[in-house]
Amino acid sequence: MLHTKPLLAKGVLHNRKMLTQSQFSQIQFSAVLNSYTMFYNVAKAINFVDNATVQLSADGVKVVVEDCKTVQATAYITKACFSEYEIAQPRKRKSTAMDGEDHETADDNEPLTSFGLNLKVFTDCLSMFMDGDYDSTMKMLYKGDGAPLVVILERRCEDELITECSVKTMEALEILDYDFEEDQVCSKVSIKGQDFFALLSEMDRNCREVELFISPDAPHFKFSTFDELGSESSFEITNSSDMLISFHSTETTTNRYQFAHFKLVMKTLALASKIALRTNKDGLVGLQVMIENSESSNIFVEYFVMPLCDGRIFT
């Protein structure tokens, strides 16, 4: 392929078939993770559907998945997680007199900031260097609308193994915008991640429904499961428990959810250092999970789970 030699010489690419020099000059997004192990673990944890929407911004990367408009997960890899992070900003131009107003508008060549991606294919690519005890780096390159996401993996070992993948992208999927309006929030609970995960792990994995009780009065926080015969098992946490970092509740709420949705959350909770749980007056529950990526950076995953209403999903 023509014009790839400068890229090969710079060490940007190692495969002549990936990008030409002219294509590289059009790159709108470039980022490097010195160690992508935790990124891979998080991507695998939210891969409960194949296709995801990737949103790029100056602050980091969001990967959003959604199942039947009833459960949504968003992984947020902050800019601080990357050793290199560059994203092209829309060029601005002054409006002309014909526009009728004096303001700045985006150029027609504004870069794309979101796209669809088969998350299973993407994680399968990343898994190639996940065996063994070696650290591996990941570089992502994205040219823009319709272009593939180029992933370059390098294992830091004596053999200096390098692989390059080109993952096809698609149009960004339509996703729901869950909004927790402050005056609709009933409770906010901050919980130690590993303690909460340990408790949930002891619950009956074969149950069909879970019930979440939160109240200003004792027992304050109660999590119950119900099987097909109606048998109940539960645990209670008071607001003075060492497991809780903070507790705030304005009214008593009791809502039920499909346990299958909480099972989807469990893979992420296994990585959590801290969990922030919120509920609103409609019974929507939001779980914000903080995962330590390094000493100076964190990855965040947010889940929204819709409640059941009369045995059916309430939407």
From TrEMBL:
The keyword Cytoplasm does not apply. Its main location: nucleus. The keyword Nucleus applies. Gene3D superfamilies: 3.70.10.10. It comes from the Eukaryota. One of its GO terms (cellular component) is checkpoint clamp complex. Keywords: DNA damage, DNA repair, Nucleus. It is found in: Nucleus. GO terms for biological process: DNA damage checkpoint signaling; DNA repair. InterPro entries: Cell_cycle_checkpoint_Rad1, DNA_clamp_sf, Rad1_Rec1_Rad17. Belongs to the rad1 family. This is Putative cell cycle checkpoint protein rad1. It comes from Aedes albopictus.
